[in-house]
Design brief:
alpha+beta; 12% strand; 5 helices; DNA-binding; homodimer; Arc Repressor Mutant, subunit A; 69% helix; 115 residues
DNA sequence: TTTAGTACCTTGTATTGCAAGGTATTCAAA
DNA sequence: TTTGAATACCTTGCAATACAAGGTACTAAA
């Protein structure tokens, strides 16, 4: 169907905009490894693919927003636990503000639309 | 500065996700021409460039979500007024739902982050 | 007839999400 | 001891797309 295609496409677009923000939010709550981040995002209906998250974590690490440590697992290969840095936290504050601004913006247009 | 770069970059990303949604919302409130759509978005701090909006309007027209009519202006060249179609309205409903879902998702992660 | 303002549109570049494919580790069953 | 399943990591190549930059055209005033 074309209809759902348009919407699906846009849901994807919307998600893309908040990927880095979501990751930083999750890591601000505690250290996680890639697969668990994917799961946590899935839990709130923000779907991410592996091929998206790994390069992204590497990028955020390079930018100095994240760090990682290896940790053994009893149930498979070692896990790379990512943690947020101080720089990451300060940037996160900016993203919080950006998200709030965007939400307000959309709300405004929405209300105008209903008026 | 690099710091603001990271945030600016993400603000842009976030905006991108809601471009089509914003346009449909604005046109649901009344017919507008490209420049006025840009202005209305700017009014709520969602910045869009001309090079973004024109191809996008054409795409939405092709998808059948919009139509347009030419209208003379006393203050310059003719304006292309876009209007939302029935299909556009039905898709908009889906986008409303998508946005709500995303907002809730982010809220959830945010709250977990604060807990 | 030139300049300023407004409005339209296209081209080329750079970013980036993601499908697909690949490697490595552990554990349990055959 | 080999095979298979589960888990975890990562890379490559393609496709989509926002936007900077550059371009056309109409109106009105200087």
């Amino acid at each position: 169907m074309e209809n759902t295609g348009i919407i699906e496409n846009n849901k994807t677009q919307m998600r893309r905009g908040v990927l880095e923000y979501s990751i930083l939010l999750i890591l601000a709550a505690g250290d996680e490894y890639a697969s668990s981040i994917i799961q946590k995002m899935k839990d709130v209906n923000i779907i991410v693919a592996e091929g998206t998250i790994y390069p992204l974590l590497i990028r955020l690490k390079k930018l100095g927003l994240l760090n990682y440590r290896w940790e053994e697992s009893t149930q498979g290969p070692p896990r790379k636990y990512y943690m947020i840095t101080d720089l990451g936290r300060s940037q996160l504050a900016g993203l919080d503000a950006a998200w709030d601004e965007l939400s307000k913006g959309i709300e405004s247009i929405r209300n105008a639309s209903r008026a």
